[in-house]
Amino acid sequence: MPDQPVPTVPLDPARFDDPDCAASPAQPFRVGDKWTGMVLRCLEDGTPRRFTELRVPLHWITPKVLTETLRSMERNGFVTRTVHDENPPRVEYTLTPLGRSLIGPLDTACDWARAHAPAITEARASYEQGSPVA
Amino acid sequence: MPDQPVPTVPLDPARFDDPDCAASPAQPFRVGDKWTGMVLRCLEDGTPRRFTELRVPLHWITPKVLTETLRSMERNGFVTRTVHDENPPRVEYTLTPLGRSLIGPLDTACDWARAHAPAITEARASYEQGSPVA
DNA sequence: CAGTATCCTAGGAGATACTG
DNA sequence: CAGTATCTCCTAGGATACTG
């Protein structure tokens, strides 16, 4: 859960004129893995959540994958991992301000998806229609 | 290029109370593949672009991958593929209104990335610091 | 409880070559 | 020019154990 090896043209406007446009190998930070967004959702209300507790709404994601996701988020500064010295152990995860700042963009994306889902479904249907036939 | 097999908890707020929260297996539409965003960038100014022309700012992406990306975008209704009956063949790609509607969210994400890149870099540095040591 | 440790697989993506 | 057709590789991510 990657600091993904990263694309070339960063998502900045593309240049067709510059012959050497490959020049700007910026390093975007990908949050596009499968689980990060959902973990964000799980923590957005501000309540600290425990490891196992997080697995529930994530449909019993395997511990390995959840650990990887959480570690990557921690490393990127999106979540804080707090170990309470008790027995049995209790570890809680919370969003940092940086992590919380991601919620806006996430909402924007989700809103877009919700708003245009019908259009996409329709586009797919007519594509399926057209391709096999014509 | 995928209609990706999709996650469970859609990116809607997560539910911890509902024991059967796995119930809503919504089908988000992922645009998170490696190239779609960048193709969007290549077409956002409205100018129709040709297949080979697109390869340039995409750092000579292989034809196979570009085709897959473009097909998926076409199927989702993001781009239009126009074949001009000439010889040699000329095919042009343009954004549809639906495709263009994605630019807003894309910008939002890019703006976030640009704004917080330093914070992330810093977080990573101090994580690298803390982990091996402590 | 909160994780490791292993093993395994699907499929995104690159390289290379060929065609209408 | 605008693509197919093949092959191959990598790795995200799942399944199944085991442990401090």
UniProtKB/TrEMBL annotation, chains A, B:
Any Pfam family matching the protein: HxlR
GO MF annotations, alphabetized: DNA binding
PROSITE patterns: HTH_HXLR
Residue stretches spanning the membrane: none
Annotated ranges, domain HTH hxlR-type: 21-121
Top-level taxon: Bacteria
Keywords, in A-Z order: DNA-binding, Transcription, Transcription regulation
InterPro entries: HTH_HxlR, WH-like_DNA-bd_sf, WH_DNA-bd_sf
Record-given protein name: HxlR family transcriptional regulator
